[in-house]
UniProtKB/TrEMBL annotation:
GO molecular function ontology, one term from the record: transmembrane transporter activity
Organism, scientific name: Halorhodospira halophila (strain DSM 244 / SL1)
Topology class, membrane: Single-pass membrane protein; Single-pass type II membrane protein
Keywords, ordered alphabetically: Cell membrane, Membrane, Protein transport, Transmembrane, Transmembrane helix, Transport
Stored Pfam families: ExbD
Subcellular localization, as worded in the UniProt entry: Cell membrane
Family from the record: Belongs to the ExbD/TolR family.
InterPro entries membership: ExbD (IPR003400)
GO-annotated cellular components: plasma membrane
Protein name: Outer membrane transport energization protein ExbD
Length: 134
């Protein structure tokens, strides 16, 4: 006598546990994430050749180079920008700051200069193209 074995049915893979894990991960990352509120910093770019008749004092010019920052002929460290802005604007808070990035200067350096100006409380800030020599 021969016993016939019934063929085993393949078990179907249930997707329910997989979906549960995906939802748990989704909830975890939603709760663990931090949402930073980005601060807006307004910058105006004056028209070329426009002269400020209302400005009594020469604006402070910050040159952003590939090597760092320069105010006039003096090199300034990135960590000292805020204190330099505060010193320069103690006497005249309405003085304009001109940020002039050189060709090839990192955007990160320009943003850091703008952030330092905002932290120092400066309101009249403009970004200009580098002046052409000639």
């Amino acid at each position: 006598m021969r016993i016939e074995e019934t063929p085993r049915r393949r078990r179907l893979v249930s997707l329910t546990p997989l979906i549960d894990v995906v939802f748990i991960l989704l909830i975890f990352f939603m709760l663990a994430s931090t949402f930073v509120e980005w601060q807006a910093f307004g910058v105006d770019a004056p028209a070329e050749g426009a002269a400020d008749a209302e400005q009594d004092e020469e604006p402070l010019r910050l040159h952003v180079t590939t090597d760092g920052y320069r105010i006039g002929d003096e090199s300034v460290a990135a960590d000292d920008l805020r204190s330099r802005f505060e010193e320069a604007y103690e006497a005249d808070a309405d003085r304009r700051l001109l940020v002039i990035p050189a060709a090839g200067a990192p955007v990160r350096a320009v943003i850091r200069a703008l952030d330092s100006a905002a932290l120092a409380g400066l309101e009249d800030v403009a970004v200009l193209r580098e002046e052409e020599e000639g």
